[in-house]
Amino acid sequence: MLMSYVNQFLMPSNNKSALRQTNRNLRAEIDVLKAQVMQMKSDLSESRTVRPKIDQMSTEVVDSNPYSRLMALQRMGVVTNYALIREKTVVIVGIGGVGSVTAEMLVRCGIGRLILFDYDKVELANMNRLFFQPHQSGLSKVAAATSTLNFINPDVQIEAYNYNITLVENFDHFLNRLKYGGLKDESPVDLVLSCVDNFEARMTINKACNLLGQVWYESGVSEDAVSCHIQLMYPGRTPCFECLPPLIVASGLDEKTLKREGVCAASLPTTMALVSSLLVQNTLKYLLKFGEVSTYLGYGAAKDSFYRVTLKANPDCADSWCSQRQNEWRNRLLQLNLPFDSPWDIEELLKADEAKHEKLQEALSKSKHDENDFGIELESESSSRTESTCNTKNYLSNLNSDSVGVKTLYSVNDRKLDPSLQKTEDSFVSQTNDSLEALMAKMKNL
């Protein structure tokens, strides 16, 4: 080994650059090993007890049940079946200030499987944000995150991949995990969350998801750290990242050339936590089918302003797979005999309306008070409700289109009803000089 290094020093100068690169790689590996040793020492010094795994979520309200408050959402009617979250798989690309907090929230919510992608390392410069700790400095972000997340909730399956998804040699594997990373028989993942900080990675995620027809959420924080946004990307139904590209992407510029040396983007843990909360909240709504999923939601910290926007896919999108998905969606709307400008979740909305209608019909069809011990015949509430509903519909249909509110058909002067009412108000008032005591005495004698 030593002779090989000596021979390399004696080689021409063109090989010396390769030697320098080898030395840099060795130093990097040594730094990683040192960080791992520090992590192991820290783990040994801490008396951490990992709880046993829980096979099924329980609604039992006890201090030892970590899911009792989550299952309360089901008891209160917010969700139909919260335990379904154990069957869901979410991919997070970018385990930085937003991605790490997002991963922690999903793990605490009891997600079934989490697949993490990042190639960066934890640095002391990351400590102004949440999740990571100083003793994890030097570790890869996915390794540090996996260790912490497994300790928080050992029930969650976590896959971690330490590579750059934008490199050609890694794209096929990234595509494979999106296509076969689900929990059920190598099914696709349920949702992809983009928490990256560059346009190149966003474009890579966009192309992969358009190719597979995979739903994903894009998130971002402004360079000055005072505004943020999340955007739902449903291939063919909502705009993809290339439908409405940022100026840098549309111009074909390399964003790396725009960065100035010694200047970095601002970062606030408050903004990071906020965009992570919005992202996870809408992830839960999408996976568990409750509430209204936001297609675009922005926040400005300067005035604490929120804004929601509904966007349509660009029919002239440069991405060919996006155009193909748009054609598939239009054909689907034609089959359902629905207009092309229907909401992206129109099928879910129709199913929900149908379920409500069936539930109402079932409630109306149930006959109450069929039999009783007293032989009393009571009118069914359902028939009276139906009759009342029909009468209401007939009444509303007979109203003029220009009628508003309640109209008075006629008015009567009260004084013309009875001549006795024509007395003046003064006739009901009498004057007296009696004292208060005298008046009270008269009242007692009545």
TrEMBL record:
* Pfam families named among the record's database cross-references: ThiF (PF00899)
Q: Which InterPro entries match?
A: ThiF/MoeB/HesA (IPR045886), ThiF_NAD_FAD-bd (IPR000594), Ubiquitin-activating_enz (IPR035985)
Write down any Gene Ontology CC term.
cytosol
Keywords of this protein's UniProt record, alphabetized?
ATP-binding, Coiled coil, Metal-binding, Nucleotide-binding, Ubl conjugation pathway, Zinc
Domain THIF-type NAD/FAD binding fold, first and last residues per copy: 67-317
Ranges in coiled-coil conformation: 16-43
**Biological process GO annotation list?**
protein ufmylation
Which Gene3D superfamilies has this protein been placed in?
Answer: NAD(P)-binding Rossmann-like Domain
- Can you provide one Gene Ontology molecular function annotated for this UniProt record? metal ion binding
Tell me where the signal peptide lies. Answer: none
Record's superkingdom?
A: Eukaryota
Presence of keyword ATP-binding: yes
CDD domains in alphabetical order: ThiF_MoeB_HesA_family
Family named by the database record: Belongs to the ubiquitin-activating E1 family. UBA5 subfamily.
Name the record gives this protein: Ubiquitin-like modifier-activating enzyme 5
User: What phylogenetic lineage does the species belong to?
Assistant: Eukaryota, Metazoa, Spiralia, Lophotrochozoa, Platyhelminthes
